[in-house]
Amino acid sequence: CADAPASCSGQGQGGGRTGVVSTAVGLAVTPGLAVFLHVPHHGLPLIWVMLGLVPLNLLASVQGHLQGEQRFARLSLLVLVVGAGRLLGGLVPLVARASPGLVMAGITIGCTVAAGVGLWSTRRPADVHPPAAGVAPELVAATVSMGSLLLLSNTDLLVARHLLTPTAAGRYAAGVVVAKVAFWLPQAVPITALPRLSSTTDRARALREAVALTAIVAVASITVTAV
Fold it and tell me: Most buried among 49, 124, 171, 227, by the most CB within 10 A?
């Protein structure tokens, strides 16, 4: 960041502020969630989840900048780093048979390290432009849309944790992991298509290609699952 302080600042400030607000709200509702979800250890795993919202929001901000600049190779690398950090952060304490609180702590730490690596790896001397006029309504609309999608796609897991036995809820959660892979696998298509869809000159072609690629991914996923 010393080489490009303006670039790093522009990429991280918005995500940092959103992360702090999200964490504050999350910590405020943690006691109620801990009771509803029957989380042991005084809700400590949930506390670690809420603390992890700060690096997650930072990463989302950086990824958004990379997507907007169409730096897809760097974006792909960052996604891999984040995935590896969260996986190893949770897997190591899980293999060591640690408590759920320590597992979630490992995931949060891994995500935080990945966020630091992401901010460092995307630094470069670059032009930082102020937000365009009227961007706030678009941002709110996008946030509501994505938030609704995430809520609807995860509600069943929350209900299962509330209604099922711990063993059955754990098995259900394992199945949800597989379902999420199929659900989010095609996301590489809109990530690369969205910058082109924002252009009036290339929008129709980008949309056709995005639909075709999504269909190909869907057919491949169904075929592999059937096999």
Answer: 49
